Amino acid sequence: MSSASLIPENDPTTLFTSAGMQPMIPYLLGEKHPAGTRICDSQKCFRTQDIEDVGDNRHTTFFEMLGNWSLGDYFKKEQITWMYEFLTKEVGLDPKNLYVTCFRGKEEIGIPKDEESAKLWQDKFASDGIDAQIVDFPERDGLQGGRIFYYDEKKNWWSRAGVPEKMPIGEPGGPDTEMFWDFGANLGIHEASEWKNEPCHVNCDCGRFVEIGNNVFMAYKRTDKGFEFLQNKNVDFGGGLERMVAASNGNRDIFSADIFTRAIAKIEGISGQKYDADKNDKVTYAFRVVLDHVRAATFLIADGAVPSNKDQGYFTRRLIRRAVRYARDLGVQQNFCADVADSYISVYGEAYPDLVNKKEKILGELTTEEEKFRKTLEQGMKVFETGTANMKAGEIIPAVQSFDLYQSYGFPLEITIEFAKEKGLQVDTAGFESEMKKHQELSRSGAEVKFKGGLADTSEISVKYHTATHLLHAALRAVLGDHVEQKGSNITAERMRFDFTHPAKMTDEEKKRVEDLVNYAIQKDYPVTFAEMTVAEAKNLGAIGLFEEKYGTLVKVYSVGDPAQSPHAEIDSPTFSKEICGGPHVEHTGTLGKFKIAKEEASSAGIRRIKAILE
Ligand SMILES: [Zn+2]
Ligand SMILES: [Zn+2]
After folding, report:
1. Residue 490 β-bridge partners
2. Cα Rg for the chain, rounded, in angstroms?
3. Per-residue pLDDT tens for 104-158?
4. Which of 449, 367, 436, 361 is CA-nearest to residue 406?
5. Residue whose C-alpha is closest to residue 247's, from 38, 103, 91
6. How far is the CA of 327 from the centre of ligand 1 (A)?
7. Fewest 10 Å CB contacts: which of 76, 232, 427, 435?
8. H or E element at residue 475
9. Domains 22-249 and 460-614 agree in fold
């Protein structure tokens, strides 16, 4: 299937898609996937927590994660056989540099050592003439000449809650087996690292080994009696595409992969500087920040996160501003973001046609943001210099000062922190944030706390709001006409937002009729059920809905009311709505509460936007 958006739909608990399995969670928990039981993809991912780590040879905020899933279909034997073939034959990695880890087991909770996986790997290595030794306690005793290593649940167990003991009742999880690539003992990476006095092993932090993928065997469920086998065992594989490329190139520098070649050439042309991965100086660092941030901003804007002061847009803004600030280290004072983005679009355009379709919008947003920031950057730097002129190393810049740089000159806090660091000064971040709160801006911290919510369950309230979009959609079509089409929705715990095509402002009477119809459907307590069918069948039955062919031909059609009847959003109708949708939904509309339109406004040309609440 194609990649889901970087911005999760209808999931208020997380700002970005940060792993390939994130859009798959409902299916791993048992919901039926319209495309069947064997799925694979390459998922766009964005990780905010890595923004400040970008600059070395391996951190990026944006990356692609390869994934494959078995939803109650194949299991360990097939997965390990195919994974070995994929890595050694398709990607062409030399199995001599490949290492794997398996779960050591935990007697206290009755989960055995994953000897089955270890043995399967051993057989695969043997087929290439490699005698793969299985060894235990590598974290204590080092490599011991082994190739297959057992680790504990901190390394080789997966659940949304972490280690088995932390899993709530009902939560699925299981052991995993990870693959590592060895860049070679001869590089002396471990010996040059701060871990040099401890034994090196594949999970050592020195960087000699890099994890290229993880196969999770989701086999267990925690119950009040302990751990039991799930009825349907799943496989969940995720592997970093760029890390595999780095392994396949035998080059630890991710930015040396050819996906970056055109962008590097562009920046070299603009700056007159050369990218040299081996130098690891200020110039190399700046190249990497610009390369990563412009690429991430390009994909984020394509998925709708235009630069702004809140939520996802705040991160796009931060990325662009940091890119502009680091480009100064390359001597670049003129606009460059659109040019670099353009070179990425030419490289990624075939795999992600959306970038090509939205090229004008992407380049326009980048340039606008860049110009806006450039205007204040020089002024802000003068203010910073003046404000800190008499400060000594180790002193703290007062919060009001860094907040003023943010408020008046658009400096994200970390830009102030970076400038401060160069002068040996510190920044009062807690003070900055309370200043921020005082000004009632949606702050960086606010956005990140939200992000850290992580992969929590789709909350009850967002399921209610999502179900209400079906009722609203049907009611709008009944009141305004069949030209009404959904153009997007966004749900938080506080409200829903619904965009739709309609040429004019809604009158008060129209709004009242829509509200009344939705509330009628809620009072009627219709059952909500689904059936799977082809798109043609769905349309025949009068189903509406956003549908992209990305999930293949079978779709889920949710009926509000009698699934056997065609839908009419009117009083006393046996069926209120039928809509193609992936879920999740409430089972009866009566649980939704009272529906109220809070606002109706223009979104863009020909598109209206409703904000509504459930009381
Ligand atoms: Zn090491
Ligand atoms: Zn739905």
Report:
1. 497
2. 27
3. 999 999 999 999 999 999 999 999 999 999 999 999 999 999 999 999 999 999 9
4. 436
5. 91
6. 34
7. 232
8. helix 460-480
9. no
CATH number of the structural domain 22-249 = 3.30.930.10
Q: How many CB atoms lie within 10 A of CB 367?
A: 17
Q: Let me know the angle formed at the C-alpha of 365 by 360 and 367, rounded to the nearest 5 degrees.
A: 95
Ligand nearest to the CA of 468: 2
Distance from the first to the final alpha carbon of the chain: 38
Domain 460-614 has CATH 1.10.730.10: no
- Which burial class, exposed, middle or buried, applies to 125 when counting CB atoms under 10 A from its CB (0-12, 13-18, 19+)? buried
Q: How far is the centre of ligand 1, averaged over its atoms, from the C-alpha of 578 (Å)?
A: 57
Whose tokens are 């003046």? That residue is 386
CB 203 within 8 A of CB 182: no
Q: Can you give the residue ranges of every domain in the chain?
A: 22-249, 257-452, 460-614
The pLDDT tens digits of the residues spanning 73-98 come to: 999 999 999 999 999 999 999 999 99
| 593 close to 522: Cβ distance less than 8 angstroms | yes
Question: Would the pLDDT of 548 be above 60?
Answer: no
Tokens describing residue 182 = 């060895």
Contact 20, 45 (CB under 8 A): yes
Count CB atoms within 10 A of the CB of residue 281.
Answer: 10
Handedness of CA 489, 492, 496, 497 (dihedral sign): negative
Q: How far is the CA of 323 from the centre of ligand 1 (A)?
A: 32
Ligand having the closest approach to the CA of 185: 1
Angle at 326 between CA 320 and CA 330, to 5 degrees: 130
Q: Cβ atoms within 10 A of the Cβ of 564, count?
A: 10
Bridge partners of 271, per DSSP, are none
CA of 196 to the centre of ligand 1 (A): 7
